[in-house]
Amino acid sequence: MIDYPVLTVTTFLPLAGAALVLFLGSERFVRWIALATTLATLVVAAPLYWRFDKGSSALQFVEAAEWIPDWGIAYAMGVDGISLPFIFLASVLSVLCVAASWTSVRTRLREFHVALLVAETAMIGLFAASNLFLFFVFWELIVIPVFLLIGVWGGPGRVYASIKFLIFTLAGSVLMLVGIIALQRLCGTLDLEALAGAAIEPGHQYWLFAAFLAAFAVKVPMFPVHTWLPNAHTEAPTAGSVILAAILLKMGAYGFLRVSLPILPDAVQRFLVPMLVVSVVAIVYGAYVTLTQTDVKRLIAYSSVSHMGFVTLGIFTLRQAGVEGAILQMINHGILSAALFLCVGMVYERTHTREIADYGGLAKAAPVYSTLLALFCLAAAGFPGLNSFVGEFLIIGGAFETRFWLGAVAIWGVALGTTYLVWLYYRVAMGKTNPGLAGLALELDAREVAILAPLALLAVVLGLYPEWILSYLHAPVAELLAGGGAP
Amino acid sequence: MNRPTTADLTLLVPELILVGMALVLILAARRIQTAPIALVGTVVAALAAAAASIWVVPSEGASGFGGMITVDGYSRFFEVLIAASLALAALLSAKTLDRDRIPRAEYHVLLLLASTGMMLAVSSLDLLTLYLGVELMTLCTIVLVGIQVENPASNEAAVKYFLIASFASALLLFGISLTYGVTGTTDFAGIASALRGRGSDPLLIAAMGLVAAGLAFKIAAVPFHAWAPDAYQGATAPVAAFLAAGSKAAGLAAVGRVALVAFDSEARTLSAILAGLAGLSIVVASIIALSQTDMKRLLAYSSIAHAGYALLGLIAGGPEGASATMTYACFYVFMTLGAFGVVIALGERGESVDGYQGLAAQRPGTAALMLIFLLALTGIPPTAGFAAKFVVIQSAVRADHVPLAVLAVVCSVVTAFVYMRIAVQMYMKEPKQAAPARLPLTVSAALAVTALVTLIGGISPGSLAPWTVPP
Questions:
Q1: Which of A168, A339, B4, B436 is the least buried, fewest Cβ under 10 Å from its Cβ?
Q2: pLDDT value of residue B2
């Protein structure tokens, strides 16, 4: 067996690919190089999956090196069952992003693919980092490529959307920076495993929790700092929307799991009720706002607010079922929001409109497309047998366990979710074919089917056999909750 | 006092090299107006001075001229930094000198002498030599600002700068004389020992306040910043770059030594004064920068805000704080020279924010470089700007100045808007003007050096640590 630092290689291979693209003389092979890089990243990460020990809650594939000894900062990487699925998700989606942009991106190919590959490095690195400083570096690193993806290749309102995204994200993360520095001062280390065992005075914990909350809440996004999301997701090009919805939104929730819960347990207890309330507000408010949207992409964007509300609700139930459900739901939402944005992007390439009113009757004109869209809409709505059902079921189970009213409100959110997704499908695919669509070749080509197929497969497999992901989560989540998080 | 010995003179080898080259250029002035000899000579002298300060000058902590001049790790660090900014400023000037028909020899002589003053200021152990060094620097830079004799804007800037600078010098001198009155000496070690164990008295606070105010003019900290935007705007871009880089680094070095050596026992009072200056600089400059449309003015406000960030380390105090400020000063010099470098490279077009429209489509390489410098100025990893910001915030938090740290990072979001506005122009707008000419070789070289330092400093900031020796 070949032995190499798997995490470091997986993280930085896309960056190497980006450098290659950057210094390549011609733009002819840019797409191929980017595709090859993302596929190679998927391959070099393979040992992570077959050599991973699911029974252990400790970090595995640990790598450590000196980095900035004078500032007490080390380079440390390692994954556990919580972070591994996200590395998988990020590396799979990166391949799909390159493939999905094959025909839709025609300007500044080189910069586009550099941004995409740098974003992949940041996404994988974030989930692989086991040192808070390194975590922060990747956290910030992703902002710039996504800012450019939105602002350069986005829709008509792209400049406003990109600036809004940048300012919101930075405003959150600078406070996290102060929090990180304060943690280092209090505990003398930034190693996440060591910090999890540190006893921090509750008075300090509250402030630290607030500082980290600023960063995580913006990324999730939680109500009321979600307002950047509809702009950014709607204006971004398809690949940008996929990265935003599938990975970027998970970074905040992942932060709660990595920092808030294990390191600041007293503060979590203290702020438990507000966090739960904000989560259910996001679920219900997000769902109602989603119902009123008339733009397909904006509708899917807003649905993320509601869906991520479920995730934070699950995390802050602090029950095994709730937290596992939340993590599973993060993966599910990653798959489904990516799939839905890809679906929208594919049809937009043909029609150049995102207004729901301009669609209708796609089921006749594009049966394969409509079937896949139906699958993804149903899955996102929590249809039994498809992936979201299990996640939502676990989360709501955890919610009922902690506080009855939380479960009741969350169920209402599920009902609303079904409504807006099924209604969307009804307006887009059913009824009479919209005359405006006449003469357009709406059916998917082989490339597009190949992009959506893996996601459809994942949605079905995870619906029927969620234990595939859950088996990774049992040990680390039990450890997380035993560490002081549970009441 | 005895006559200077050879040992004394060895301490001044870097300064002597610069002065020597200045004299050569003055003598040869009439012959070299067209050839690039002045540029080559200046760069060679700067490199030689840096090399001399690293290798020729004797071991640690030597002092000479009756304890007025020293060579220690601190002065060595700043001397190399000043030499670097001199060399880079000279490289950046090459094209502008031709365009504006500025006399080459005189221009380079002034650059060399200003750098000599800076080096003298960073290595002085006495308020009087410090004053001499700082004034030499200021006088030369005033002339540099006004060197476009036929340009009224340049003259106006020079006059403004001169008036405010003389006011600042008066404050500094007044502070020095009050310090002498309280302690009976102008020697840093003497002041420190005279103040030890002695209660705070109003006269002393006034003395410290005046010295701090005088030096705050040099680093352009709010409320002593008013000259900077006008001077930068009126001067040619390379001179503005030199002011923003070299003279700010020298001023910070002077503040650092005065705060940490001379007034060490009064650190609490002085750090309160500095905290006020830093907080005001960061807040005011970040906000005013939002509305700037002229790049030189924008970068002037940026340099004011950065002076505030750099002061955070000195406010925290102690050797760690001093090292933090030194790290900040070093990375700041390179990233700000880089940003000015792009402004200079684009010529007329580079001097207004609108000029950057569509640059990425026309000159992707130049736009990418500018993006790196803008990210560094904002403080986003993996650039040196982030490392610099991290280390000063770290020292502020360690010294329990958490509110100041929070204020600083919140304002960095405001400055993010300032810098990213330019990124938006470059990447997200369509070009309206003709593509700029190819970069001249000298400017490319300077940009390459600054970009390398900005990136390597961000990835491996620890490699600077052995050099950041506190005074």
A1: B4
A2: 64
